[in-house]
Amino acid sequence: MPHTLIVHLKEGMNVQQYFVVRQVEERRTQHAKPYLNLQLADRSGIIRAKLWSEALREYPGPFRLGDYVGVVGFVRAYQGEPEITIQKIWTLEQIKQKKELDNEEPKDFDPSLLHATTPYDREQMWQELLDLASTALTPPLRDLVLNLLQANETAWLNQPAARRNHHAYLGGLLEHTWHVARLAHRIAALYPDIHQELVVAGAILHDVGKLKELGQPHAPDYTVAGQLLGHIVLGWDMIRQEAANLAFPDENLLLQLEHIVLTHHGQQEFGSPVLPKTREALLVYYADDLDAKLKIMEQHLQADTSDRQFTPYHRLLQRELYKIGRETEPQPEEENSLEE
């Protein structure tokens, strides 16, 4: 059976294809029967799935975050959203053993269908980011930023920017950083009194801590350090360590850069320990927030394939979105073919 992307799965459809596991929770029904609550993903999105107790006895796993799994089941609607009821499930390793394959993948397994990636050319984005740091910055900020970029190139090219909400795909962190840095650079140019180098350095490094906060890029989850400290503190620590390695000569300039990174969530309830108290920090916060919100809106619009003029309510954005250009014009009634 060919792979049907999650975004196209509808109630009543049968499923027989591969997914990647994004979440596994062991739960019990009200009658104390064990079952698994899963989230399965492909390159188009994530869908909930249930492995009820009867099927769980026959297919006990174990199933872990990041596993590739072959699933047989059907799609039902639950609370207005599609959900897969799993009838059979095997890990890719179990399928390979079953088919007596050694290091080969089953012929119908195509990982390119399972992993969302940035739509932009990663090498081009990376080079543009390096060029921006090289041309818009001077020492010591240029040395600090370029050292952190070059030391983390492989991770930065692959890392998602988040687990779910925005840019949650391979190369997502690079795409987000690329957008925020260019946006902040252009805005700063409109205000001659703003320290443009601080803005560019802060924009490039604002999410550097996500390189340590999230592990396993193809199915991102929090590392222990990510859970205990979060990317804001981790990024601040990475900058402090690199500054120490360079014997950074301007303590006040470093302090202002750290302030940008520590305040880029804008509000204490969103994780920043203090509010932005410089114009440079405020600018980077808004550029970061704008790019994230625009991506969330883009993803929400793409996920809604209905003919309605407005999307369903988005809990994070707290609104429905108007699908510009998707208005449906009244159609003339078709003649009844039975009368012909």
Structure summary:
With 340 residues, the chain is of the alpha+beta class. The protein has helices spanning 53-58, 92-98, 122-136, 141-151, 153-158, 172-188, 196-205, 210-213, 224-228, 230-246, 251-262, 279-303, and strands at residues 14-28, 34-42, 45-51, 68-78, 81-91, 214-215, 221-222.
Query: Judging by the overall fold, what is the CATH architecture of the largest domain?
Result: Orthogonal Bundle
User: Roughly what fraction of the amino acids lie in strands?
Assistant: 15-25%
What's the rounded overall pLDDT mean? 89
Count of helix runs? 12
Report Rg: 24 Å
What brief labels describe this structure?
340 residues, alpha+beta, OB fold (Dihydrolipoamide Acetyltransferase, E2P), Hypothetical protein af1432, 2 domains, 5-stranded mixed barrel, two-stranded antiparallel ribbon, 12 helices, 40% helix, disordered C terminus
Protein architecture, described:
By secondary structure, the chain is of the alpha+beta class. It folds into 2 domains: 6-113, OB fold (Dihydrolipoamide Acetyltransferase, E2P), CATH 2.40.50; 122-298, Orthogonal Bundle (Hypothetical protein af1432), CATH 1.10.3210. The protein is built from 12 helices and 7 strands. The chain has helices at residues 53-58, 92-98, 122-136, 141-151, 153-158, 172-188, 196-205, 210-213, 224-228, 230-246, 251-262, 279-303; strands at 14-28, 34-42, 45-51, 68-78, 81-91, 214-215, 221-222. The longest helix is centred in the last third of the chain and has 25 residues, at 279-303. The radius of gyration is 24 Å and the shape is elongated. It starts with 13 loop residues before the first strand and ends in a 37-residue tail after the last helix. Mean pLDDT is 89; it is low at 327-340.
